[in-house]
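quick q for whoever's on today - can somebody do inverse folding on this one?? i tried earlier but teh output was garbage lol. tokens:
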């Protein structure tokens, strides 16, 4: 059996101009990065902005397990299947982070015969967007410390500087650092730390901004710390907004690539859904909606994280809600949620499957709470039994949801034809989106609504630091982004399946004033991940002729 990277490397990739032409983009609007990648010129928007929007399909999943679910693979395969059915289709995905690529996960461009290509480029440096975001973020950090060194005119409280530095790698040793050590000319000594680039507020802003003007306004509003009187200090006060946006002039432009079988795909922006809002850029999604009849997009991790944030943070700014939601699951993953060890997943176990189904059931009910049509994509594996597959489909039917078998990993778009036809029918359903909360609700109320309605928690505990932050932020009327572990509906990764009688503990709250949302940090979630015992970096190599191996 070929590996993902081998399948990708054997694909016949078309020139990006040909792919762009499929959705009506002429070469005049492409800024090509070689033959297979391109950025979209900002001038295209004026030509397409009055086009009718296509249908929007959101792909999400159950809580992820080591068994794998295949959310990105399903997103790509479904897009290819829709195109095979004769529909003008576009896919919209996030950009991978180098952290997981060299850490635990490996590549993040789909799998099998449902991948976006060129796989190696997208997983590595791509068009330089994450490097630009890292540079802009760290320029602001350098300017803050330089300002303090040269007299601290803004009266920064050194204990309340909220702007850390970032790096697009997993490196736990950088979570807490002391800077300014050495001679007096080496800066002012203070404690700070690093986050991973995809947790940067600038990453969130890139994904939520509509254009350069909007980008400037948002970066201007970033809160970088507080003065000794407790007043906010913003990026605008440091007078470097223009410099930051200059570094981001290309990063804000959507990237266009293709799937193995030539379906157009926008891959742009990369916030994690466990520590940020987990969706690709609004600009990419807007372009896709104006250029295609069907747009298939994904939100990170399970529906409790990515889908909730897509619906409550991104969609109000996008001005459109999904016409259908696809929840991805596998028999293996459901059995793991039912308590089966990874090495026993190939054995039929109906009692564990029944117990694990409760996780899928909760996500279905959560998406139905928004009054959206829901379909389950059941990825099939060789050892799945007919009893197991039938059980999941029957249980979904009891909830008023169709569960279609999907084989897009093995067969590409051909393996998702039935799923695609079901999705198309679902998008014809007339429904009125029902928001989870009102924007004028308090932060406490929003956090409690998400925790109780989407996670199934019985309550929320706000620790002392969070209560102190609430006292400063309670007047903010932003949506809430809860940062928590992705593996569980709770904030404890050990509580798999559908846990009950648990509380969500909020340890801190921070306003991302430029992005326009409040982040509530739950449990022990980290904004700078660490590497596992044996990181993927040990497996990745390059041959003398430039062929990359192990990146999957």
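ok took a stab at it. sequence:
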């Amino acid at each position: 059996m070929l590996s993902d990277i081998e399948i990708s490397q054997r694909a016949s990739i078309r020139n990006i101009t040909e792919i762009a032409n499929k959705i009506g983009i002429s070469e005049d609007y492409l800024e090509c990065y070689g033959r297979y990648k391109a950025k979209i010129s900002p001038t295209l928007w004026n030509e397409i902005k009055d086009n009718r929007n296509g249908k929007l399909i959101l792909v999400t999943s159950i809580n992820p397990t080591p068994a794998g679910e295949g959310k990105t693979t399903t997103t790509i395969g479904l897009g290819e299947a829709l195109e095979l059915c004769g529909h003008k289709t576009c896919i919209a995905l996030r950009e991978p982070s180098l952290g997981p690529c060299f850490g635990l996960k490996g590549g993040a461009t789909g799998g099998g015969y449902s991948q976006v290509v060129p796989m190696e480029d997208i997983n590595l440096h791509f068009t330089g967007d994450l490097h630009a975001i890292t540079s802009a973020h760290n320029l602001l950090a350098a300017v803050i410390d330089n300002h303090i060194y040269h007299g601290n005119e803004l009266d920064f409280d050194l204990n309340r500087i909220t702007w850390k530095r970032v790096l697009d790698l997993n490196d736990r040793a950088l979570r807490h650092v002391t800077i300014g050590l050495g001679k007096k000319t080496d800066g002012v000594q203070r404690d700070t730390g690093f986050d991973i680039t995809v947790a940067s507020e600038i990453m969130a802003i890139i994904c939520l901004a509509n254009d350069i003007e909007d980008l400037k306004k948002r970066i201007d509003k970033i809160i970088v710390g507080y003065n000794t009187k407790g007043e906010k200090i913003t990026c605008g006060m440091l007078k470097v907004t223009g410099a930051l946006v200059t570094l981001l002039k290309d990063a804000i432009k959507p990237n266009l690539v293709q799937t193995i079988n030539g379906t157009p795909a926008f891959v742009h922006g990369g916030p994690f859904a466990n520590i940020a809002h987990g969706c690709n850029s609004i600009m990419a999604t807007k372009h896709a909606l104006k250029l295609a009849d069907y747009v298939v997009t994904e939100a990170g991790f399970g529906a409790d994280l990515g889908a909730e944030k897509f619906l409550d943070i991104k969609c109000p700014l996008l001005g459109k809600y999904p016409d259908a939601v696809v929840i991805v699951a596998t028999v293996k993953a459901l059995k793991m949620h039912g308590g089966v060890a990874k090495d026993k997943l190939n054995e039929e176990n109906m009692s564990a499957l029944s117990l694990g189904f409760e996780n899928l059931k909760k996500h279905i009910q959560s998406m139905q709470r928004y009054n959206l049509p829901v379909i389950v994509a059941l990825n099939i594996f060789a050892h799945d039994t007919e009893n197991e597959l039938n059980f999941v489909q029957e249980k979904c039917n009891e909830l008023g949801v169709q569960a279609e078998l999907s084989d897009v990993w093995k067969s590409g778009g051909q393996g998702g034809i039935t799923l695609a036809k079901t999705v198309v029918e679902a998008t014809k359903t007339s429904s009125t989106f029902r928001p989870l909360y009102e924007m004028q609700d308090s932060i406490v109320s929003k956090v409690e609504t998400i925790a109780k309605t989407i996670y199934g928690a019985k309550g929320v505990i706000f620790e002392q630091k969070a209560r102190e932050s609430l006292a400063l932020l309670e007047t903010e009327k932003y949506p809430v982004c809860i940062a928590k572990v992705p593996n569980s509906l709770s904030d404890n990764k050990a509580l798999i399946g559908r846990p009950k009688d648990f509380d969500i503990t909020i340890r801190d709250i921070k306003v991302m004033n430029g992005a326009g949302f409040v982040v509530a940090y739950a449990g022990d979630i980290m904004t700078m991940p660490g590497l596992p015992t044996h990181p993927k970096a040990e497996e990745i190599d390059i041959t003398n002729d430039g062929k990359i191996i192990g990146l999957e």
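fwiw The domain at 4-127+251-427 is CATH 3.40.50.300 (Rossmann fold). also The two ends are 14 Å apart (CA to CA). so keep that in mind when u check it
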